[in-house]
Amino acid sequence: xxxxxxxxxxxxxxxxxxxxxxxxxxxxxxxxxxxxxxxxxxxxxxxxxxxxxxxxxxxxxxxxxxxxxxxxxxxxxxx
Length: 79
Known about the structure:
mainly alpha; 2 helices; rod-shaped
């Protein structure tokens, strides 16, 4: 394996870890949204919902980038 493939494999692993981290954060924000909306109504509910949408959007962007990087890695590996 050359250095380009090793570097790309490390990036794919890093992106995968960060994607999982963002999904876990989104889950916690979702639980926070449920608590602030249904159990303890607050004015911060809109903020939590906004943060949830932002974190899910960023996670989607990372998933898209991760998929394209995996595709490029597979092409390099097949050469």
